[in-house]
Amino acid sequence: MDRPLCLTVESDPLAVRAALSRLMHGLTERGVPAAALGSVELVLAEVLNNVVEHAYVRGTGPIDIALTLKRRQIVCRVCDQGRRMPGDTLPEAAEIALDGPIKDLPEGGFGWALIHKLAEDIHYTRADQVNRLTFRIPIETAAG
Amino acid sequence: MQIVTETGATRQIVRVLDTRIDAAVAIRFKEEMREATASGTGPVILDLSQVEFLDSSGLGAVVAVMKFLAPDRKLELAGLTPTVAKVFRLTRMDGVFTIHPAAPGAPDSLRSVG
């Protein structure tokens, strides 16, 4: 079993961007095929940006990331010390209405939709002032 | 955020030269697009062939551009790379936009035509 890939990042969009670059590099070194990295980077970007924008909305703080490669999937854990999720539960992947006029199209709400489509076994817990999100991202073999 | 624009008589092509439209640049992207499309008429074709990564903030920004151009001007997309295309597909936004395989005059269009 591989050693986990761990990183602590400050809650800032540019720091998140740099962290994603390092994590993708680390996963490549561990043999994750380049074609699979797009989905992995997307899920992690959405999760990390949610922490920056919502958990740490009133300031900044550290985000701890741990990725472990297990067979054909990447097991992820993301922890922060920001605000708890509303109702202590995961946001649902709301169906986004796209059939109305252009002026009514949503400009947000896509993040959780993408996470729910690309990740599995998503769990959220709050304990000792820490938000802890765990999920698995399957490594795609074919382009899709 | 680097974008270049080519204004023609019937349409305007805007090419994004950055490789990412993400949470770090989404607001800047919207501002630059507003500026770039302030003059000009007809549809705007957004060439995304250099953009390797677009997250939900980037997607929201593209939708915002479509909304501020409407109803007078249409926003069409061109040259989506695989990860960007996936974001549009998974959010079903690929049904909202007209998406061209490649932008006119872009180096990629020479290859995809043949």
What does this structure look like?
The complex is a heterodimer of chains A (144) and B (114). Chain A is built from three helices and five strands. The mean pLDDT of chain A is 92. With 144 residues, chain A is α+β, with helices and mostly antiparallel strands. In chain A, strand 2 and strand 3 form a beta hairpin. In chain A, helix 1 (13-29) packs antiparallel against helix 2 (34-55). Chain B is α/β, with parallel strands linked by helices. Chain B has four helices and seven strands. In chain B, strand 6 (75-78), helix 3 and strand 7 form a beta-alpha-beta unit. The chains are: A alpha+beta (144), B alpha/beta (114). The interface between A and B is medium-sized, with 29 and 27 residues.
Tell me the number of helical segments of chain B per DSSP (H or I, 4 or more residues long): 4
| Percentage of residues in strands of chain A | 25-35%
Largest interface: A-B, 29 and 27 residues
**Radius of gyration of chain A, rounded?**
16 Å
The unreliable regions of chain A are none
Low-confidence stretches of chain B: 108-114
Biggest sheet character of chain B = 5 strands, mixed
Structural class of the secondary elements of chain A?
Answer: alpha+beta
Instruction: Supply the number of helical segments of chain A.
Output: 3
Q: Provide the β-strand percentage band of chain B.
A: 15-25%
Quaternary structure: heterodimer
Portion of residues in helices of chain A? Answer: 25-40%
Structural class call of chain B reads alpha/beta
Question: Got a strand count of chain B?
Answer: 7
Overall mean pLDDT of chain B stands at 91
- Rg calculated over all Cα atoms of chain B: 13 Å
Helix content of chain B: 25-40%
Spatial strand order of the main sheet of chain B: 1-2-4-6-7
| Terminus-to-terminus distance of chain B | 32 Å
Q: Overall 3D geometry of chain A?
A: globular
